[in-house]
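Minimal example, chain plus calcium ion.
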Amino acid sequence: MARLTPVSGFVLAFAGTMGLWATQAAANDELLKIQDDPKQWVMPLGNYSSNRYSGLDQINRDNVGDLQVAWTFSTGVLRGHEGGPLVIGNMMYVHAPFPNTVFALDLSKGGQIVWKYEPQQDPNVIPVMCCDTVNRGVAYGDGKIFLHQADTKLVALDAKTGKEVWSAMDGDATKGETGTSAPLVVKDKVLIGNSGGEFGVLGKVTAYNMSDGKIAWRAFSAGPDDQIKVDPEKTTALGKPVGKDSSLKTWEGDQWKIGGGTTWGWMSYDPELNLVYYGTGNPSTWNPAQRPGDNKYSMTIFARDADTGMAKWLYQMTPHDEWDYDGVNEMILADQQVNGQDRKLLVHFDRNGFGYTLDRDTGELLVAEKYDPAVNWATKIDLKTGLPDRVKEFSTEANGEDVNTTNICPAALGSKDQQPSAYSPKTGLFYVPTNHVCMDYEPFKVAYTAGQPYVGATLSMYPPKGEDHLGNFIAWDATTGKIKWSLPEPFSVWSGALATAGDVVFYGTLEGYLKAVDAETGKELYRFKTPSGIIGNVNTYEYDGKQYIAVLSGVGGWAGIGMAAGLTEDTAGLGAVGAYKALSSYTALGGTMTVFALPE
Ligand code: CA
């Protein structure tokens, strides 16, 4: 594909913001401005609060049933398509899984390709990607599109031409470190995390200068205080200073160096508090007997100063994990009343099956309740200590190595995985795509070899006992920790939700349906079968006076790894293949974006 000259409409759309591009720090002002314009979709999760809510209401509960396909676009890539497109001015930016092709489409010309970027990457990265070759999207800032490639390289592309401005190699794919997450642009920096918790990779978040790609700060998930950017006196956990060597003390010997805590999920940002929020993944290995201690700071929510990276507060949800309940899911920032008090909240639906509501300024734990009634590994979370009350029967450590612990709920892929939720300030509800899956888990001793899987457990997955569906789409009240309604789905809902001012909530299903439901009642209002299973996130934008809904289909991801990677053993794909076998009767591979609109 030859690079085409940008069309004049694009230049015009950006002319008004050119002045802001001149200074780096002001890029944040530009993003703050664009994120408040519902016509555009400027960040993967819609805005810094990650609420995936749009103020557009042209499509509403009364007319959503009339939606039609406006246009479609094939990415030419067969494996799982997570994430979704960005819309800035008259341009749409679409990404694909490995080889991480990026397309810039001109909405004023019916989606004509303005430029296409296809990085050259060593295909040896494919076998070290645990859960399909997914990528969760690009980011925008300062006239650049930022791509976090599978091989960990961060690339800055000129948004108008697709020309590479700079690149920085973030990690070492030969050791199993990969890139799957979307970057977050904050002020003059672009932040990325890493993947590879199943290969003994140590988690980290790195902030790069947006102007030149140089590292501004880097914070690891485990190790000495200076390396994890934790101040023993000032950084708090549930209101108390963490103290000296708070991570090192929770590991035996040097295990922390291959201890995981990768940061492959979503990040949020509160501009007033100047705090960045994200979570860390599982401690390595999956065999808990090989890593005595709390394994801090795996499975932890971090609130870090955006300028320096220093942690203000942190909270470890699942100390000494025994189930691979990565803590990386999205952090939704919302302002609501809890117990009659106005609060700046952070709401997080963890893999471990609990929905957490915290004060995002102080890190105080306000609510922690099960968002899937099937969850059985713990009975409750103590709000004072923050600790889960574990059930011994489902402890893979208590039962010992080479013992198969059965009927643990949720399964390793959690009551929810990367599929981001939505929050509507209109209804005050959170809309959560969930997995309703349990598992058998048998840990075994494993030796570490750089670049080789460092898992040490055999798993199989299935629906909860006596049930036959693997997913639910729920509405959740985060101020009380209660499910308002729950829609059963035959498979996990692995797609990101969208809530709109039109009182409609959208999500995709693994069989390939785009569904629209009433935000108050959950009543289904519309469904359309797209070309492949949906693990992408539903986005919306307005162009030329018309509201559109856009979603990537393309089955795969952890839940669809059997189809995406051609695996057939039930325990393959870290235990997911058996549970989702029936999926191949409903859909087939292939990445396509489908764009919907109301008829003229
Ligand atoms: Ca993991």
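The pocket of calcium ion is lined by residues 197-198, 281-282, 324, 326 (CB under 6 Å). Helices lie at 8-15, 18-21, 27-35, 225-228, 561-565.
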